[in-house]
């Protein structure tokens, strides 16, 4: 194996990790069909290898917001670590560790209140009622 990991995902590599990313869709679920997990993981792999920001993801991959949302779900579930270890061993785990170091929770600067109130049990901002001024 070379010392540098390629950002491209081959057919053989995908076959080795495809069972990790099987998608379960509930019948009758509304909305757009889910993106192909292979294309999403290929976008995630490109980000991990290049170290680029999500908004610079090339157009050949699904939208960067889709890839980022799935990355957060899969990363928290340990699927990205498992796949990267299977594909690239210790180098893959090192890339995951580097990405984990980049993933800092957003915090307001010292002395500044958050823009939106956040419930202590939630990580998402609470909706404020619309008030005309």
Automatic annotation (TrEMBL):
Regions annotated as coiled coil: none
Name of a matching Pfam family: DUF4096
Domain Insertion element IS402-like: start-end pairs: 9-81
Domain of life: Bacteria
UniProt cross-references to InterPro entries, sorted A to Z: IS402-like_dom, Transposase_6_like
Protein name (Swiss-Prot/TrEMBL): Putative transposase of IS4/5 family DUF4096
């Amino acid at each position: 194996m070379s010392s540098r990991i390629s950002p491209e995902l081959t057919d053989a590599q995908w076959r080795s990790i495809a069972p990790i990313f099987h998608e379960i869709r509930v019948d009758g679920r509304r909305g757009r069909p889910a993106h192909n997990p292979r294309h999403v993981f290929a976008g995630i792999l490109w980000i991990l290898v290049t170290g680029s920001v999500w908004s610079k993801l090339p157009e050949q991959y699904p939208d960067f917001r889709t890839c980022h949302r799935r990355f957060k779900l899969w990363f928290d579930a340990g699927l990205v670590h498992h796949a990267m270890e299977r594909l690239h061993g210790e180098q893959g785990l090192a890339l995951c560790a580097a990405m984990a170091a980049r993933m800092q929770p957003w915090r307001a600067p010292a002395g500044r209140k958050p823009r939106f109130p956040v419930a202590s049990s939630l990580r998402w901002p609470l909706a404020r009622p619309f008030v005309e001024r």
